[in-house]
Amino acid sequence: MRAIIYCRVSTEKETQETSLQRQYEELTALAGKLNFTVVDCIEEKASGYDIDRDGIFKLLDYFSHQEADCLCIQDETRLGRGNTKIALFHQLRKMNIPIYTITHEGRLELNEADSMVLNIVGIVEEYQRKLHNMKIKRGMRRAVSNGYNPQKNLNHINQSPGRERTEIPIEEIVRLRQNKLTFQEITTILNGLGFEASKATIHRRYQEYINSLNEN
Fold this sequence. Notes:
Elements: E1 2-9, H1 17-33, E2 37-45, H2 54-64, E3 70-73, H3 76-79, H4 82-94, E4 99-101, E5 106-107, H5 112-145, H6 150-153, H7 163-166, H8 170-178, H9 183-192, H10 199-215
Parallel strand pairs: 1-2, 1-3, 3-4
Antiparallel strand pairs: 4-5
Helix pairs in contact: 5-9
Protein backbone atom coordinates (compact mmCIF):
# COMPACT_ATOMS: atom_id res chain seq x y z
CA MET A 1 0.00 0.00 0.00
CA ARG A 2 0.98 3.62 -0.50
CA ALA A 3 1.41 5.34 2.85
CA ILE A 4 1.49 8.88 4.18
CA ILE A 5 3.65 9.36 7.26
CA TYR A 6 2.40 12.10 9.58
CA CYS A 7 4.54 13.47 12.40
CA ARG A 8 3.47 16.21 14.81
CA VAL A 9 4.76 18.01 17.87
CA SER A 10 2.83 20.64 19.77
CA THR A 11 5.44 23.38 20.21
CA GLU A 12 8.20 25.20 18.37
CA LYS A 13 10.79 24.35 21.05
CA GLU A 14 14.08 23.06 19.70
CA THR A 15 13.86 20.08 22.02
CA GLN A 16 10.86 18.89 19.99
CA GLU A 17 13.00 18.56 16.87
CA THR A 18 14.37 15.29 18.20
CA SER A 19 10.79 14.05 18.69
CA LEU A 20 9.92 14.80 15.05
CA GLN A 21 13.06 13.04 13.89
CA ARG A 22 12.33 10.04 16.10
CA GLN A 23 8.75 9.81 14.83
CA TYR A 24 9.99 9.95 11.25
CA GLU A 25 12.59 7.21 11.79
CA GLU A 26 10.22 4.91 13.66
CA LEU A 27 7.39 5.39 11.16
CA THR A 28 9.70 4.82 8.20
CA ALA A 29 10.78 1.58 9.85
CA LEU A 30 7.13 0.61 10.44
CA ALA A 31 6.27 1.29 6.80
CA GLY A 32 9.19 -0.87 5.71
CA LYS A 33 8.14 -3.67 8.04
CA LEU A 34 4.61 -3.60 6.57
CA ASN A 35 5.92 -3.36 2.99
CA PHE A 36 4.32 0.06 2.44
CA THR A 37 5.56 2.53 -0.16
CA VAL A 38 5.99 5.92 1.49
CA VAL A 39 4.44 8.62 -0.70
CA ASP A 40 5.24 11.56 1.57
CA CYS A 41 6.27 12.40 5.12
CA ILE A 42 4.38 15.35 6.57
CA GLU A 43 5.84 17.08 9.62
CA GLU A 44 4.36 20.00 11.51
CA LYS A 45 4.42 21.84 14.80
CA ALA A 46 0.89 22.59 15.95
CA SER A 47 -1.58 21.86 18.71
CA GLY A 48 -3.50 18.61 18.40
CA TYR A 49 -6.67 20.51 19.31
CA ASP A 50 -6.32 22.70 16.21
CA ILE A 51 -7.95 21.23 13.12
CA ASP A 52 -6.82 24.08 10.86
CA ARG A 53 -3.40 22.60 10.08
CA ASP A 54 -1.63 22.66 6.73
CA GLY A 55 -0.37 19.12 7.26
CA ILE A 56 -3.86 17.76 7.89
CA PHE A 57 -5.26 19.32 4.73
CA LYS A 58 -2.27 18.06 2.77
CA LEU A 59 -2.75 14.45 3.88
CA LEU A 60 -6.51 14.63 3.25
CA ASP A 61 -5.78 15.88 -0.27
CA TYR A 62 -3.59 12.84 -0.90
CA PHE A 63 -6.42 10.54 0.15
CA SER A 64 -9.22 12.41 -1.63
CA HIS A 65 -7.21 12.28 -4.88
CA GLN A 66 -6.50 8.58 -4.27
CA GLU A 67 -2.77 9.17 -4.29
CA ALA A 68 -2.25 7.21 -1.06
CA ASP A 69 -3.96 4.29 0.66
CA CYS A 70 -3.16 4.49 4.37
CA LEU A 71 -1.84 6.72 7.14
CA CYS A 72 1.06 6.01 9.51
CA ILE A 73 1.30 7.88 12.83
CA GLN A 74 3.13 7.35 16.10
CA ASP A 75 -0.12 7.11 18.07
CA GLU A 76 -3.64 8.50 17.86
CA THR A 77 -2.74 11.70 19.75
CA ARG A 78 -0.34 12.71 16.95
CA LEU A 79 -3.30 12.99 14.60
CA GLY A 80 -5.30 15.10 17.02
CA ARG A 81 -6.80 15.49 20.44
CA GLY A 82 -10.36 15.93 21.75
CA ASN A 83 -13.04 16.72 19.20
CA THR A 84 -10.43 17.26 16.50
CA LYS A 85 -9.25 13.67 16.83
CA ILE A 86 -12.81 12.32 16.55
CA ALA A 87 -13.55 14.53 13.53
CA LEU A 88 -10.42 13.33 11.71
CA PHE A 89 -11.07 9.69 12.59
CA HIS A 90 -14.57 10.07 11.19
CA GLN A 91 -13.34 11.70 7.98
CA LEU A 92 -10.70 9.03 7.40
CA ARG A 93 -13.23 6.28 8.10
CA LYS A 94 -15.58 7.74 5.48
CA MET A 95 -12.69 7.70 3.01
CA ASN A 96 -11.87 4.08 3.93
CA ILE A 97 -8.34 5.02 4.97
CA PRO A 98 -6.77 2.62 7.49
CA ILE A 99 -4.45 4.02 10.17
CA TYR A 100 -1.29 2.27 11.31
CA THR A 101 0.58 3.21 14.48
CA ILE A 102 3.84 2.43 16.19
CA THR A 103 1.93 1.94 19.45
CA HIS A 104 -0.10 -0.91 17.97
CA GLU A 105 2.75 -2.12 15.75
CA GLY A 106 0.18 -2.31 13.01
CA ARG A 107 -3.38 -1.17 12.38
CA LEU A 108 -4.90 1.22 14.91
CA GLU A 109 -7.44 -0.25 17.30
CA LEU A 110 -9.78 2.40 18.68
CA ASN A 111 -10.66 2.29 22.35
CA GLU A 112 -14.26 1.58 23.28
CA ALA A 113 -15.15 5.22 24.00
CA ASP A 114 -13.82 6.56 20.68
CA SER A 115 -15.44 3.71 18.78
CA MET A 116 -18.80 4.43 20.40
CA VAL A 117 -18.60 8.15 19.59
CA LEU A 118 -17.73 7.43 15.95
CA ASN A 119 -20.67 5.04 15.67
CA ILE A 120 -23.00 7.71 17.07
CA VAL A 121 -21.61 10.32 14.65
CA GLY A 122 -22.16 7.90 11.77
CA ILE A 123 -25.76 7.25 12.80
CA VAL A 124 -26.49 10.98 13.14
CA GLU A 125 -24.95 11.69 9.73
CA GLU A 126 -27.01 8.92 8.13
CA TYR A 127 -30.23 10.35 9.57
CA GLN A 128 -29.26 13.82 8.37
CA ARG A 129 -28.83 12.36 4.88
CA LYS A 130 -32.22 10.66 5.12
CA LEU A 131 -33.87 13.91 6.26
CA HIS A 132 -32.29 15.78 3.36
CA ASN A 133 -33.55 13.19 0.87
CA MET A 134 -37.03 13.26 2.41
CA LYS A 135 -37.12 17.06 2.06
CA ILE A 136 -36.28 16.70 -1.62
CA LYS A 137 -39.02 14.10 -2.14
CA ARG A 138 -41.63 16.11 -0.22
CA GLY A 139 -40.80 19.28 -2.13
CA MET A 140 -40.90 17.45 -5.45
CA ARG A 141 -44.26 15.81 -4.63
CA ARG A 142 -45.68 19.21 -3.78
CA ALA A 143 -44.39 20.67 -7.03
CA VAL A 144 -45.75 17.76 -9.10
CA SER A 145 -49.15 18.00 -7.40
CA ASN A 146 -49.24 21.62 -8.56
CA GLY A 147 -48.53 20.67 -12.17
CA TYR A 148 -44.72 20.68 -12.28
CA ASN A 149 -43.21 18.03 -14.61
CA PRO A 150 -39.48 17.54 -13.89
CA GLN A 151 -39.01 15.03 -16.75
CA LYS A 152 -40.38 17.54 -19.23
CA ASN A 153 -38.78 20.67 -17.80
CA LEU A 154 -35.39 19.16 -16.94
CA ASN A 155 -34.84 16.81 -19.86
CA HIS A 156 -31.03 17.17 -19.59
CA ILE A 157 -30.54 16.06 -15.98
CA ASN A 158 -29.45 12.53 -16.97
CA GLN A 159 -26.59 13.82 -19.08
CA SER A 160 -23.04 13.65 -17.76
CA PRO A 161 -22.04 16.40 -15.31
CA GLY A 162 -20.70 19.53 -16.91
CA ARG A 163 -21.26 23.21 -17.35
CA GLU A 164 -24.92 22.73 -18.33
CA ARG A 165 -25.74 20.96 -15.07
CA THR A 166 -23.97 23.41 -12.80
CA GLU A 167 -25.68 26.45 -14.31
CA ILE A 168 -28.80 27.45 -12.41
CA PRO A 169 -31.93 27.08 -14.61
CA ILE A 170 -33.82 30.32 -13.98
CA GLU A 171 -36.86 29.01 -15.87
CA GLU A 172 -37.18 26.16 -13.35
CA ILE A 173 -36.82 28.54 -10.42
CA VAL A 174 -39.67 30.62 -11.86
CA ARG A 175 -41.86 27.54 -12.48
CA LEU A 176 -41.33 26.20 -8.97
CA ARG A 177 -41.96 29.62 -7.49
CA GLN A 178 -45.21 29.87 -9.46
CA ASN A 179 -46.17 26.52 -7.92
CA LYS A 180 -45.95 28.28 -4.54
CA LEU A 181 -42.77 26.59 -3.31
CA THR A 182 -40.54 28.47 -0.90
CA PHE A 183 -36.99 29.40 -1.87
CA GLN A 184 -35.71 26.83 0.61
CA GLU A 185 -37.79 24.11 -1.05
CA ILE A 186 -36.63 25.22 -4.49
CA THR A 187 -33.01 25.13 -3.32
CA THR A 188 -33.41 21.62 -1.91
CA ILE A 189 -35.02 20.32 -5.10
CA LEU A 190 -32.47 21.86 -7.47
CA ASN A 191 -29.56 20.71 -5.31
CA GLY A 192 -30.99 17.21 -5.36
CA LEU A 193 -31.16 17.34 -9.16
CA GLY A 194 -27.51 18.35 -9.43
CA PHE A 195 -27.76 22.15 -9.60
CA GLU A 196 -25.58 23.29 -6.71
CA ALA A 197 -26.49 26.74 -5.42
CA SER A 198 -27.35 28.33 -2.12
CA LYS A 199 -30.77 29.64 -1.15
CA ALA A 200 -29.39 33.20 -1.32
CA THR A 201 -28.11 32.68 -4.88
CA ILE A 202 -31.40 31.23 -6.08
CA HIS A 203 -33.34 34.07 -4.45
CA ARG A 204 -31.01 36.62 -6.05
CA ARG A 205 -31.36 35.06 -9.51
CA TYR A 206 -35.14 35.09 -9.15
CA GLN A 207 -35.19 38.75 -8.10
CA GLU A 208 -32.89 39.67 -10.98
CA TYR A 209 -35.27 37.91 -13.35
CA ILE A 210 -38.31 39.70 -11.93
CA ASN A 211 -36.52 43.06 -12.03
CA SER A 212 -35.54 42.51 -15.67
CA LEU A 213 -39.21 41.87 -16.52
CA ASN A 214 -40.28 45.04 -14.74
CA GLU A 215 -37.65 47.07 -16.59
CA ASN A 216 -38.99 45.80 -19.88
